[in-house]
Amino acid sequence: MEQLLEILNPHFLLRNAFYAGLIVGFVCPQVGIFFVLRRMVLLGIALPQVSNAGIAFAFLLHTLGWHFFPHMESEKTMALTGSVVFALIAIFTLAILERKQKGFTENRIGFTYVLAGAVSILFVSWNPYGQTEVLSMLRGEIVSIPNFYLWSMFAIYGAIFICIIGFHRNFVIVSYDTDMATTLGKKVILWDIMLYLIIGIVISFGVMTVGPLVIFGFLLIPPIAARMVVRGILPFCVVSSVIGTAASFIGFYISYRFDLPTGPTDIAILCIILVLLYIGKILIRLKR
Amino acid sequence: MNTDNCITLENVAIGYSGKVLLKDINFSINAGEFVVLFGPNGSGKTTLFKTILRIIPPIQGTIIYGDGHPTRFGYVPQRQFLDEIYPFTAEEVVFMGTFGQAKPFCPTPKANRDCIEQCLKDVGMLDMRRKLFSELSGGQKQRILIARALATRPNVLLLDEPITGVDVLAQKKIIELISDLHKKRQLTIMLVTHEVHHIPSWVNKIIHIHHYKVVLGSLEEIISLSRIDEILT
To answer: Is the CB of B99 less than 8 angstroms away from the CB of A177?
Structure first.
């Protein structure tokens, strides 16, 4: 209890990490909903890996003294730019190939995952300095988040959340029934681009903050768990975010209490919630 | 019945990626008519249907909509193409019909909620509104999709194979429902089917796709052509 009060104290030393976790837990499931409903779960594994490769590439350039823009000397800004650029290139290339029906989706995503994983390792190994620092960022530095970074995250994820809520009907109709959306006068390609853009930004920013594994977990596990117990799209969205936020809160508390790494603890909590909901669903079915 | 031209196709060629599937298509549908688009599987019915709906652009020719009046389509797709992973309730599926008029960041206006309720009543599914769409029977799903199309406040209702894969009783009920809507709401209706016995005897017009040609025909002509095809195959 003492530790819980400590975490909730506004002057808590690791409060930025705690708040960042809550933001990720609340917003990522709203984006993950579309991964699950559009059956793009595999893309949820591949994109964080691509984002990772972007970070490693940016660090390599930074170490070699090259910058994306003049005077861009902050490592984190470089890494974020690399992460966003790589994620967006990958998502739009995959979307174009999907539209043109070139080959099998699974093959394309599998190839992207393997390629991104391999080049991430190569970029890190070619980096003559600071391998430890790069690897620490790739793991997700959830415990040391500066104020500026937290506020940027709050602004970006907040804007994305508002977009998803405000344009929810458009995203839902173009995902569920493209033909119907067209007859209603919706520009399907534009809404798809906007959704992909949101996905790219959420993943690249999230990977920088909490790492690829945690982002993948928060994107997918809350919607999968929520889908088992809800009826209707509105409860589905609400329950997904509730599960994500609760897992982030409980995960942070447990990791602080027992001195465990926060990211993997969060994922373990998400998995426990998923399994409990599944068992609960089976028990209710058996009672009926 | 109003004799205004509702949809007119002039020398239209249709297909995908520049590849022509059907050409020299010429026909018109008058406002208030009940039209059946009939042809065997793979004949290009759905492509023609989607071209009329503006989902696929025509490769050649022109399609004229209405006589200066805006044409609003109510579209009923083949239900098996809708993914059941979405946890929609029946009411939420009907709600989609109002998305064309919905403004971003605004709550659903009361008029739209009333419209949804009325559409559910019209198809006899009001008491099923809270059920998951994926848990409904084939016939019930079809009714909900018709209600969704009605929620767009259409003047033309287009139904793609609405009675395929449902039991005989449900087929009869769906045809009765479509017929009622045609009479009560004075809707122009275009129904796509590949089975002769799904064509109601009282339809105004039958558009028949036969050996890659689009022709207008009577029910008797189509039945005899289908029998000849059956004998030859």
So the answer is: no
